[in-house]
Design brief:
Elements lengths: L20 E5 L5 E5 L5 H8 L1 H12 L13
């Protein structure tokens, strides 16, 4: 498969529309694309910290936590 870039250095990768990749340029000039996902720092902290997950799970079960929302009048 041959991939060409346009005048703005963009390339189309068939079968991979609307995806994100990390690009690494190797010393030999070859390019490596790795599938990527962008997450916030807060989400990363939650995903990697079992203590934080447990704390937030307990907090969400607390009787003082309410999830009601007021509807706006139109």
């Amino acid at each position: 498969m041959l991939i060409e870039t346009d005048s703005r250095s963009r390339a189309v990768i068939p079968g991979h529309s609307n995806e994100r990749f990390l690009l690494h340029e190797n010393e030999d000039g070859s390019l490596l694309l790795q599938p990527a996902r962008v997450v916030t720092e807060a989400q990363l902290a939650y995903d990697t910290d079992p203590e934080l997950q447990a704390l937030l799970a307990r907090a969400s079960r607390s009787a003082t936590v309410r999830r009601t929302r007021a509807r706006r009048a139109t």
